[in-house]
Amino acid sequence: QVQLQESGPGLVKPSQTLSLTCTVSGGSISNGSYYWSWIRQPAGKGLEWIGRIYISGSTNYNPSLKSRVTISIDTSKNQFSLELNSMTAADTAVYYCARTHYPFYYMDVWGKGTTVTVS
Amino acid sequence: SYELTQPPSVSVSPGQTATITCSGDKLGDKYASWYQQKPGQSPVLVMYQDDKRPSGIPERFSGSNSGNTATLTISGSQAMDEADYYCQAWDSSVVFGGGTKVTVL
Hints:
Oligomer: heterodimer
Mean pLDDT of chain A: 96
Structural class of chain A: mainly beta
Largest interface: A-B, 23 and 22 residues
């Protein structure tokens, strides 16, 4: 079955840019039935959607993060990526990638998450 | 921006029914999804398109959505159902509710 795995640095300095990659295995990222999303969760808090990308390259971002976020896709590597710039302590969280059903926007497969600390 | 409101906590006795609500403006006109998250684990989809259960989710989980409220019901609650539950909908972007901690005791 499809599995997702996040990778990237666990520690980022304030004002720097976070770069995370999600590798999709067991299925093709080019499957047009899905979007590919990033979600984050600060410790002890709820889920916050960051944004999503479709195979066409079309993106949609959380309005509260839109000015700092870029999501891209690399079909040759079966990966999609997140860049979040101007990091602050408030961005410290577990970051998840998830497969998102098109067009109903529910997330049916999640990665295990990766912890990012800004310090 | 669109908001989804959930009660912070719900308590239920084993074998009884737990009802988790999610409120939002005209939520019934949108599709609601629900996720279960246990400590230290990733969220798991337990309901989508209001009332559809993914494969592997027990039949004791059911969902509905009408008016301004979506509801996730756990019939015959078990200790393993103790977790945080999040509702989610789409309104120009993905929106999550704040989460409800379900305690089975």
